[in-house]
């Protein structure tokens, strides 16, 4: 009996020590990373600009298309640019404003979460892009598409359905279609066309060790590194080839930009894969010391982005220059 009691007491002490260790790590990581859980509501239209230096901004909504039209007072003679953000759901208006200040007409768009769209990044109907072309009267007109992260995945997918996409600029892109992100646990493809889900990589079919490390990071409030999960899911899914994004329909020029220390997913590897598929039509630029975002922070919203602050900022400045050079060469009439 005494032995049993000692064992139980030892287990209680062990549990107390483990709980204390978890709370200590949570406190440490909160102080280190400063995550407060508050994120800007990207669907609040009041946070977006109505003017920029050298032009105006108009909100538009048509069918399932929703976004902002950046109109320069003195526009370049160039094809218009469609811009997407990533899985945070923003229309990437900072990039749109940068381009518009350099004379380009830009449409910055939501692809989920807006009033006339699906609520989550899950089973997003690609036909919203056709609604955009109809609204902007751009059907049959060459356009450049710029996407970042999940928006880059979307951009490459759209080339299989809309011939209007003449040039691509993809930041930390994906060469695969990955599963959608649903807080309701509805596991499905990110994208649909004509009511049918496109083949996708299921992230639940990934390495258990990667899953366990992710859960541990969640528990102790350490920024989560998702890259290993994405990499192992590509290796472990039986339909990886079916989920690979076809590039055969795209015959324009592409600028593919990624960080070599991307902690979110293997954006550098996938940029090179896309570049190999497109051959001479692709320019691939890898910033070896940069992470997923070229903004500075190495972690954001509880997720590890990678890189160093200095390398990320430098990659942002250098990639801005590359984008303008690419547009001058390929998008200006």
From TrEMBL:
One of its GO terms (molecular function) is fatty acyl-CoA hydrolase activity. This is BAAT / Acyl-CoA thioester hydrolase C terminal. The active site is at 149 (charge relay system), 262 (charge relay system), 292 (charge relay system). Transmembrane segments: none annotated. Signal peptide: none annotated. PANTHER family: ACYL-COENZYME A THIOESTERASE 1-LIKE, ACYL-COENZYME A THIOESTERASE-RELATED. It comes from the Bacteria. It holds the Pfam family BAAT_C. One of its GO terms (biological process) is fatty acid metabolic process.
